[in-house]
Amino acid sequence: MTCTVTRLAPFNTRKKRWSTAVVLLVAATAGWANVLTLQAADNWRAKANPNGSDLFFTRGEIPELRIEIADSELQKLRQENRKYVKATLTENGKQVYPDVGIKLKGAAGSFRGVDDRPALTINVDKFASKDAQAPSKSFHAIDKFHLNNSVQDHSYLNERICSELFLAAGVPAARVTHARVWLNNRDLGLYVLKEGFDTTFLKRHFADPKGNLYDGGFLQEIDVKLEKDTGDGPDDHRDLAALVQACRNPKLEERWPQIVERLNVDQFLTFMALEILTCHWDGYCRNRNNYRVYFDPTTKQAHFLPHGMDQMFNDPGASIQDRGGALVPQAVLQNPDWYATYRQRIRDLQPLFSADKLLKRVDEAAYRLKPVLMKMHPDRAREHADRVRELKAQLTARTNSIREQIRAEPVPLAFNAQGEASLADWSEKIETPGAKLELQTPTDQPRLLVIDAAQLTNCVASWRTSVMLAPGRYKFQGRAKGFDIQATESGSGRGAGLRISGGQRTNQLSGNTDWTALEFSLDVDSLKKVELVAELRASKGRVAFDADSLKLVKVKSP
Asked: 546 vs 441, 495, 542, CA distance in Å?
């Protein structure tokens, strides 16, 4: 069985909900991005999909949110800050949302106590009546949202920019806007407002929103019992356990079909590529942190969702070869076909990382925030402008680095439809002076790479060529003929044979032989240059390698 993946369409094909970033990406492809403004894109989208949450996140005003928590509820929150308490939310002094649920959020870097400047989660219908006849409650057509204090991102823009990038590539991500927040008449200032991961969110991206949605928690791999946020599936974590088991299956012929059954591989490759491209050091792939996993009931496959994107682009020169140390990327990228698709996915996503488009997007988002900051204090607006300039410098450096790394990336050896690649550019390596090497090209006969021991006590000589190989399993094959070879022992092999530099072989020729097929198997765990060796280790005799038969065979993924 050969597992293949197809290119993801850069939009949600089920509901045709195009994000602003998608419109800009398509515009770039069509060559008219230079005349398309953000406002025009938002207007187009709003007319095509006049949904309350769409309008709110794209071009709605930045709201003023006042949260009132009674003393008794506030005390509960101080004692159990991760448990919802009741509060009243007022928007722009007009719209009142009574009895909303509110709790604290954040991990080691962003968590602040309720009497400080806390990050908050608000669930509008948490304490709503269970009566089916009661009207449902929502905030701009969403039920749950977060107010992030952005203490680790003073530009307040990383979440929004990266959310748009993921959405443009077809990866479900929470939409982002901003708000000015008061808590019990304390002015907490500007916050990042981000939609929550709940059933309402899942309905936007999946045909069936009733699957299990897991919170990755803080620095946790998927092999622990992650907290289940929503879902009608079993509560025994069997879906996660099955994915873990598939990723750890040492039998590759079993691993690949098991992973396909449990993971949307194509979506994961895009998710992983974007985590690497955006320098998401604190995401799943690199730090086993800030992620969600959703098991789609229609396919039974897991989808990874990005989260916690407030510390992005901090290492503009980060390698695009980085695959992270988490379980799933390590397992998936051992499949050579998936690895090749992943490398191509990096290149396919590069147009999203156009400095001109990203910087323009930052300017437009910052311009939208300026009146709010000026109202708070002119100094806040000036300070924010400095942080925006820093973010733009990071984005420029990152887009340049991505472009240069892709341009300089070594190209792996190409294989034909049969999974074979012929080998050329053989060069001599004589380790014992006096050995004789010759390329013979007899008429109507195979080209021969000949090594003659020339009566040396211990001849060590070889023909060598180097190739760049993607991760995978390969066989180095070819034919050779021996002439009175008196083999000598060596840690690398004896007599004549094939191997790679640094490898040990069991294939060998000694004495007089007819043309004999030789084979050396090798596994490559990352993109690397490999030196292939056709050698003779003997005290007497001669070997001829059929140069036209020497080839590499890519072992097909089962």
From this structure: 10, 17, 13
